[in-house]
Amino acid sequence: MKSNKKVSWAEPYKMKMVELLKMTTRQQRVKAIKEAGYNTFLLKSEDVYIDLLTDSGTSAMSDRQWSGMFMGDEAYAGSRNYYNLERAIQKYYGYKYIIPTHQGRGAENILSKVLIKKGDIIPGNMYFTTTRLHQELAGGKFEDIIIDAAHDPENEFPFKGNVDISKLDALVKKHGAAKIPYVSIATNVNMAGGQPISMGNLKELRAYCKKHKIRIIHDMTRVAENAYFIQQREKGYEKKTIKEIVFEICSLTDGATMSAKKDALVNIGGFLAINEWDAFEKARNMVVVYEGLHTYGGLAGRDMEAIAIGIEESVDDHHQRARVGQVEYLGNKMMEFGIPIVKPIGGHGIFVNAKAFLPHLTQDEFPAQTLAAEIYVESGVRTMERGIVSAGRKPNGQNYYPKLELVRFTIPRRVYTQAHMDVIAESTAMVYERRNKIKGMKMVYEPQYLRFFQARFEKL
Ligand SMILES: *Cc1c(COP(=O)(O)O)cnc(C)c1O
Predict the structure, then answer these.
(1) How far apart are CA 377 and CA 28, in angstroms?
(2) Is 128 assigned a catalytic role?
(3) Same domain for 148 and 242?
(4) What domain range includes position 426?
(5) Are 206 and 281 found together in one domain?
(6) Which of 51, 178, 367, 385 has the fewest other C-beta atoms within 10 Å?
(7) What is the separation, in whole angstroms, between the first and last Cα of the chain?
């Protein structure tokens, strides 16, 4: 069936197995969140009703993927599944050389070590936690070159993932292009709320980088969701398939790191891809130190098979329409209740603006962390903080103070129903009604790296 905008979207699949959920009482949830130090990452999954912590590794695999798992060739070297994965990446993304890794950050670690020298500058369209950390650990410094609109949750610009080329140009003028090993470009920028970069902007960036001999490295974790938005919003792309758009995006970049746990519909896995032989050779050598041999990189053969199949399913037009359609449904429902969310509605989740939701809290009282805990207590819905806690500290020890202070409701792919979306919006609305009575928190334990995962809090 051709997609027809007059008919509402529906899932292009049906269910044949379900996972039963434990229902909890409010009293049980109050106790559980206190024991978790008011950090939703420290809750036990069995105490959660609807889990929107992340869309990472939480997708439901298809029967095709599951049967692919049975075809795992668990040879140490040269597994059949490695070649299937390589073929899928070359076919759908067009990159030449690939190395599997246990997940996205494994690829980021290796790529950063291969390409970054001490003192280098890495401009990017907004930071991502693990990506920036690996750039810093390799001796580089991240510089944000995303357009200003991306930092404004009210701004409805359709391509808030775009790069401000004048910001990049200022960095090139200040440091010289030789200090910039690559520009780090995320598709459907996670930290901006799942916001796309336009093909037009990417082409302009490509022309600029070509002139200055700077690579573009693609954080392609959500490239198919970005392609969907290009198809829906960008002139000249209405008639193109997601497959074609994904391929074109990748063709404008020199290499990529991928967390296959998102777009590619698997529970674990990732890879690094690059078109340059020299960088590939170094990376291929390094992967044996950190991940495993270059034909498995920390994955079982069956995992590589599931990724190869997942890549193919992720670029299907009907799949993406239902995927993003469900997120839009939730976002519209939230807006009907007057809940302040980041606009336009993004691709992988709804981002509630905690600064606007709890305007009586200062950023040092962790508004987003507080709100995530309250939402859990209300209904057993698990969300996460994307604000000052996630932003962490600068290499000099000072806190980053991000403009955005958000609670992320991330929707796993092919997992929840529209009725679940209703419950999520209704229970958030109940917290919204009692927002004036909500008090902030203080951090009582802070780990050194990526503190949001393990930090603990107490109520003020
Ligand atoms: C998840 C993610 C990563 C890191 O991938 P992992 O598989 O979690 O290690 C990198 N970049 C972006 C944009 C992500 O969303």
Answers:
(1) 9
(2) yes
(3) yes
(4) 26-55+317-459
(5) yes
(6) 178
(7) 55
For ligand 1, say whether the CB of 190 is within 6 Å of any of its atoms.
yes
Each as own residue / partner, the long-range contacts of residues 290-295 (CB below 8 Å, 24 or more positions apart, any chain) are: 290/106, 290/109, 290/110, 291/100, 291/101, 291/102, 291/106, 291/110, 293/76, 293/77, 294/99, 294/100, 295/77, 295/78, 295/79, 295/82, 295/100
> Total domain count for the chain?
2
Q: Is the CB of 299 under 6 A from ligand 1?
A: no
Can you tell me the distance from the alpha carbon of 301 to that of 85, in angstroms, rounded to the nearest whole number? 10
In tens digits, what is the pLDDT along the chain, a chain of 460 residues? 455 567 888 999 999 999 999 999 999 999 999 999 999 999 999 999 999 999 999 999 999 999 999 999 999 999 999 999 999 999 999 999 999 999 999 999 999 999 999 999 999 999 998 999 999 999 999 999 999 999 998 899 999 999 999 999 999 999 999 999 999 999 999 988 899 999 999 999 999 999 999 999 999 999 999 999 999 999 999 999 999 999 999 999 999 999 999 999 999 999 999 999 999 999 999 999 999 999 999 999 999 999 999 999 999 999 999 999 999 999 999 999 999 999 999 999 999 999 999 999 999 999 999 999 999 999 999 999 999 999 898 889 899 999 889 999 999 999 999 999 999 999 999 999 999 999 999 999 999 888 999 999 999 9
Cα of 316 from ligand 1 centre, angstroms: 22
Any catalytic annotation for residue 452? Answer: yes
Cβ of 131 less than 6 Å from ligand 1? yes
Looking at the structure, do residues 202 and 332 belong to the same domain, yes or no? no
Last residue of a domain, one of 252, 283, 314: 314
Indicate the burial class of 5 (C-beta count within 10 angstroms; 0-12, 13-18, 19 or more).
exposed
**Residue of 59, 133, 219 with the most ligand 1 atoms within 8 Å of its CB, for mutation:** 219
Active site residue 152: no
Q: Looking at the structure, do residues 309 and 360 belong to the same domain, yes or no?
A: no
Q: For residue 97, what is the enclosing H or E element?
A: strand 97-101
Same domain, yes or no, for 78 and 223?
yes
408 pocket-lining for ligand 1 (C-beta < 6 Å): no
Ligand 1, pocket-test mutation among 190, 220, 225, 449, most atoms within 8 A of CB: 190
Q: Indicate the pTM of the whole model.
A: 0.93
